């Protein structure tokens, strides 16, 4: 049997309510040369029966009974079983645009320097999308180029996992997905970035990303704030941009921000200074470093700035201030979510 061009890894657990719509969106793809590795991760609803019926109608759908092994293991099983050199991710509660596979496959073929191509996404249903998710999607959907991904990789996960398409040999060569106490997708993006791989995003909404109250980001301890902070600190400590010899300045001198920054500081990256706009903090000394107003950064040689402010509106203002002083994202400063 001839191998397909794309293998879609579709992990499933108790998704009977949403799986039919997901499968219909796969059947409507304008790019036909794919297989679907439908990996059942221990469902106890009608999901296996839905997949079996779909496979009887469409030989491209391959049912895989995995038992309850967990998402990272299910994804690695999909990588091991995939016959195609290109992997597309999909979740059982989401819906693909009909041109998703065609456009992403074309982009990877046309840009061999890319290891991964994602797309913009739109969250639905609108009534369930809270302000925080809307703001996250607004930020994520503007991070498009490899340069933007590299500059903003520590802010948040720059891709919705089910939007990505990547080269299988590259991800397998990095060890696939890990089962550590943090999000397996974000950890993989950080590992790919650390390896010097280029990742980008198509400027089109090619996935409807379903919001639901039982999403893992709300219920799984791997998605708690402390898990993200520890994951970012581990990769930041190895980022060569922090090891150039430039003084490190931390933007955000509040108590919560300091506790988040402590994870990196304790790894050997002490602050030369702090930046804050609060008059009550300016002039203080925190952990041996002075607190200055933003104008202090308008100096030469430039320090390297780590912006630990998490509010998206405030971060936009900070980006503007830094740009006005000649700082370039990724080269002179990094946002840290």
UniProtKB/TrEMBL annotation:
Matches recorded under Gene3D superfamilies: Spore Coat Polysaccharide Biosynthesis Protein SpsA, Chain A (3.90.550.10)
Gene Ontology MF term list: glycosyltransferase activity
Record keyword Glycosyltransferase present: yes
Domain Glycosyltransferase 2-like: 7-172
Keywords: Glycosyltransferase, Transferase
Family: Belongs to the glycosyltransferase 2 family.
Protein known as: Glycosyl transferase
Originating species: Chloroflexus islandicus
